[in-house]
């Protein structure tokens, strides 16, 4: 599968996931899609909470779902979309710092960098990054003496 096909597949899956976002407070919906080594996709959507600090980002939900399925080491690429619900978002949404760190844990578990495609909730350009570009000099298992 080409990079453009992978990107299109992940962005479409992330948009589908974003439709399930629970965002009653911010109206900012985010969807994430993780491509696994076997070609399957695991998705997640953001979950807001009235106690704001308990909210979960879409990327964290997707990684937790993959981990719960015993597939933490199988993540190879990520698609992320987000924006205000009901509005056309044209700028790519990138993962927050916490999610970059969560994704880094998965990348380190699988011993690979992750390709990441990011876009707006309803369309717009698709930006490509690697996790290493978004989180250079990341803290990970090696910093704890775990390889």
Poorly predicted runs of 5 or more residues: none
The portion of residues assigned to helices is 25-40%
From the N-terminal CA to the C-terminal CA, the straight-line distance is 31 Å
SSE string, helices as H and strands as E: HEEHEHEEH
Strand content: 15-25%
The largest pleated sheet is described as: 5 strands, mixed
What is the count of helical runs? 4
Structural class: alpha+beta
Secondary structure: number of strands: 5
Describe this structure as you would to a colleague.
This protein is an alpha+beta fold and 147 residues long. It has one domain (3-144): Cytidine Deaminase, domain 2 (3-Layer(aba) Sandwich). The protein is built from 4 helices and 5 strands. A 5-stranded mixed β-sheet has the order 2-1-3-4-5, with helices on both faces. Strand 3 (75-84), helix 3 (97-110) and strand 4 form a beta-alpha-beta unit. The protein is globular, with a radius of gyration of 14 Å. The model has no long low-confidence stretch (mean pLDDT 95).
């Amino acid at each position: 599968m080409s990079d453009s096909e992978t990107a299109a597949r992940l962005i479409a899956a992330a948009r589908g996931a974003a439709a399930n976002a629970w965002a009653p407070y911010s109206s900012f919906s985010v969807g994430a899609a993780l491509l696994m080594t076997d070609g399957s996709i695991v998705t997640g959507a953001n979950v807001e909470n009235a106690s704001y600090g308990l909210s979960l980002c879409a990327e964290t939900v997707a990684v937790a779902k993959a981990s719960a399925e015993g597939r933490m080491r199988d993540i190879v690429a990520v698609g992320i979309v987000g924006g205000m619900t009901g509005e056309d978002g044209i700028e790519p949404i990138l993962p927050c710092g916490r999610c970059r760190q969560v994704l880094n844990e998965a990348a380190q578990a699988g011993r690979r960098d992750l390709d990441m495609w990011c876009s707006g909730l309803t369309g717009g350009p698709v930006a490509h990054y690697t996790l290493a570009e978004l989180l250079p000099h990341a803290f990970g298992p090696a910093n704890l003496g775990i390889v």
